[in-house]
Design a protein that fits this description.
flagellum, 3 domains, 7 helices, Type Iii Antifreeze Protein Isoform Hplc 12, five-stranded mixed β-barrel, periplasm
Length: about 260
């Protein structure tokens, strides 16, 4: 009887250990994750994923897929992997991969000529048609090949740079993403009552006026002081808030630093 009592805690601890996935230790995110079949696994994202390599964490329908880094981190932990996300990523872009076919590798010269003839480049495109005013979501942009003359000069090279921006006009599915078509989401509408902060050398004065046009964060917006009937040149920083004076130029570059004042 005494032997049974001694072994029982040991057996319980062993069963508990078996019920919890063993940590494979810290893993690192691959610099350019790709998948071959549309099923995005932990092995596609991390090196040394070990036995968790085949765990599916997402699906890719187009040329790229965008995953939320926090959700990937949770899925990795559940599978016994530890990823600390040292770069503080919010999203992970996974591209279409796959090995080059034997026929294509046997004819490199022909492939090169065909590439020059088509003059195609890989750019961000819209995965669906968007109406004016819609905010770009991770699933709204994908990488695709287009003829080089259709690609805009200075086109965004990172999906992260356009996610969260607002369409200035209607945008067609499949068309290349152009920075001129996007803007920060509108924070002030025409005729809104806006609190304007005049900032100079640590002194702050505030006045309330009426916006004379729509504005996104970081955009100039003339504010009419209804008491004096004078117009204040200001920069929108947040819903119902704008900045004037010497700080206005700084607000153009980084409106977020004034938004919480």
């Amino acid at each position: 009887m005494k032997r049974v009592l001694i072994l029982a805690p040991v057996l319980a601890a062993a069963l508990t250990a078996l019920a919890v996935p063993a940590l494979a230790g810290p893993v690192s995110l691959l610099p350019d994750p790709v998948d071959d079949d549309g099923r995005i696994t932990l092995g596609d994202l991390f090196d040394n994923a070990g036995g968790a390599a085949d765990v599916v964490v997402g699906r890719r329908a187009g040329a790229t897929a965008v995953l939320e880094a926090s959700q990937v981190q949770i899925a990795a932990r559940r599978a016994g992997l530890e990823w600390s996300n040292p770069a503080g990523l919010r999203r992970i872009v996974v591209r279409e991969g796959g090995a080059v076919s034997a026929e294509a590798s046997a004819r490199p010269a022909i492939a090169s000529v065909a590439a020059r003839a088509s003059a195609s480049v890989e750019v961000l495109t819209y995965a669906r048609s968007l109406a004016a005013g819609e905010v770009i979501q991770p699933e709204d942009v994908i990488w695709a090949s287009v003829q080089s003359h259709l690609a805009s000069a200075g086109a965004p090279q990172d999906a992260e740079a356009v996610i969260g921006l607002q369409a200035k006009r209607a945008l067609r599915a499949g068309s290349p993403v152009a920075q001129r078509d996007l803007a920060s989401p509108q924070v002030i509408a025409r005729n809104d009552m806006v609190e304007v902060a005049y900032l100079s050398d640590g002194v702050e004065l505030t006045v309330t006026g009426k916006a004379t046009r729509n504005a996104s964060a970081g955009e100039a917006v003339p504010i009419l002081n209804v008491q004096s009937n004078r117009t204040i040149d200001a920069v929108a920083v947040a819903p119902g808030r704008a900045v004037a004076g010497p700080a206005a130029q700084m607000a153009r570059r980084n409106p977020q630093q004034f938004a919480a004042r």
